Amino acid sequence: MSSTEQSIPPPTDRPAARRLAIARRGSVPAVSADAIEHTIRHTALRGLGFIGLLAIALIHLLDVIGKIKETPYLGAMYILLMLASIVVAFAIVHTGSPSPGRPVACWPRSR
């Protein structure tokens, strides 16, 4: 070991330790084609869900004034739907799951 490797304390978190081991080895670990395909599919579906939920919120935003004048309780439900759509859209983007406190175990598995 060189003197610079001895002076650097080992990292305590796993990703940093892995990066340090890769840097010392000088190679990058191989990633399978299935893992890449899964990541691309997962990211695309999260993006589509985000856009779809924001579209639902926008459509109801354009109609909320008319609903509030006709039937106030439906206008209030429109507002709640818009807020819920926005919250779930951002939860999907940040966590990958529509419910932030619950994993996606109940979703159908892709084959």
The low-confidence parts are: none
Structural class: mainly alpha
Helix content: over 70%
**Net shape:** elongated
Please give the number of β-strands: 0
Approximately how much beta-strand content do the residues carry? under 5%
Cα-atom radius of gyration: 23 Å
User: Major β-sheet, in short?
Assistant: none
Order of helices and strands: HHHH
Explained architecture:
This protein has 111 residues and is mainly α. The chain has a domain at 32-106. 71% of the residues lie in helices and 0% in strands. It has helices at 3-7, 14-25, 33-70, 72-95. Helix 3 (33-70) packs antiparallel against helix 4. The N and C termini lie far apart (47 Å). The mean pLDDT is 77.
Task: Describe this protein with a few key phrases.
71% helix, 4 helices, single chain, 111 residues, elongated, mainly alpha
